[in-house]
Amino acid sequence: MIHAIEVNITGEWRPDLGWEVTCSWQTLSNDSLQSVRLYNNGQQFMIYRLEKHGPSRSEVFQTPQSYMHIDCAITKDKGKEGRCVMLLEPYQPNVNDFTYTCEVSGERPMFRIEKKDYLVRILVPPSNATLTSQYQDGSSPTRVILNCSSTGLPAPTLKWTVNEHKLDADFSGRVWNATSKLWNVWSYLSYIRNSNAKVLCSPEVNSNNEIIKGIPAEFNSASRYIG
């Protein structure tokens, strides 16, 4: 299907910054830009009009939970082509998924309109688990203390298994990292050393009832640690 105005939206997670979503457009050769309207879950929050704002417009929208910066600019005469770039930086971890809509309108007399939706999913899959070990050589039998860590959004859960049998951690914790915009999580497990035991620490995130798993870290008493 050929549209009078072509609109495309792409998005990605940018480490240490947040979500970047770009809406680009291209009108027909005999048309020009009238306006770009941006929506959050169906509610318009910004409009860019070429004849009013000129070749570009930038706005900042702040809430206690997030910082949103919008930068719209034309890249061709009369706004025949251009883009609006949205950067969403979470201040706090309780930001919800939302639908971001970009609606582009051509000029009179036709006022051709095209819009696209993009689901901004507040999800960063868990990073590969990392594992460190400490032997309590003074104990008999020898006890091993393992520390596993990962990052992600929402906060990953760290699951321990020994030879595929589930074990509860001795202690787990998490902290929000305002620089990376991710949860840092860690978990400790203490168990009696067994040369035949294979210990796995597996990170996973639950997002909208979907389980997203990261790459686990393995500890083997014979070979110490396998990343």
TrEMBL record:
It comes from the Eukaryota. PROSITE patterns: RICIN_B_LECTIN. Transmembrane segments: none annotated. This is Ig-like domain-containing protein.
